[in-house]
Amino acid sequence: MGKVLVIHGPNLNLLGTREPEIYGYETLADINDMLQKQAAADGVPADFFQSNHEGDIVDTIQQAPAKGYNFIILNAGAFTHYSIAIRDAIAAINVPVIEVHLSNVHAREEFRHKSVIAPVVMGQILGFGVDSYFAAMAVVLRKIKQRLN
């Protein structure tokens, strides 16, 4: 049986009200609820964590293997572009991570074009709004099924 952890980074607690023309009108609670249902339909437990604090995200990533997580879906928000600490935490664990972004960061300001975590994640899904999360969860669920067979 697999187990997935979804980590949301800074400012994602403001979803639904923060620049909805970019990030949409769904709240973080809405997204977590929909992802929970998606995972539960395949019998996979999913847990959720959000923090505006880099160190809390690092601690959560480091603890993932000991807590039995098989995959992490991570929207590191602005930390994506400069957090070597989060990058190193991902590199230090043996749990695959999928990087997710609601917006197409490559169509936005230039400082958003570079992801320092990209070299140490399994892959990236971005630009599809909340569907970016659902696509990542679909990949995770498929990978878990493949491991079980």
UniProtKB/TrEMBL annotation:
The active site is at 23 (proton acceptor), 101 (proton donor). It comes from Anaerovibrio lipolyticus. CDD domains: DHQase_II (cd00466). Belongs to the type-II 3-dehydroquinase family. Pathway: Metabolic intermediate biosynthesis; chorismate biosynthesis; chorismate from D-erythrose 4-phosphate and phosphoenolpyruvate: step 3/7. It catalyses: 3-dehydroquinate = 3-dehydroshikimate + H2O. Keywords: Amino-acid biosynthesis, Aromatic amino acid biosynthesis, Lyase, Membrane, Transmembrane, Transmembrane helix. The gene is aroQ. GO terms for biological process: amino acid biosynthetic process; aromatic amino acid family biosynthetic process; chorismate biosynthetic process; quinate catabolic process. It is an enzyme of class 4 (lyase). Homododecamer. Substrate binds at residues 75, 81, 88, 102-103, 112. The chain crosses the membrane at residues 116-141. It holds the Pfam family DHquinase_II. One of its GO terms (molecular function) is 3-dehydroquinate dehydratase activity. Its EC number is 4.2.1.10. The record marks 18 as: Transition state stabilizer. This is 3-dehydroquinate dehydratase. PANTHER family: CATABOLIC 3-DEHYDROQUINASE. Catalyzes a trans-dehydration via an enolate intermediate.
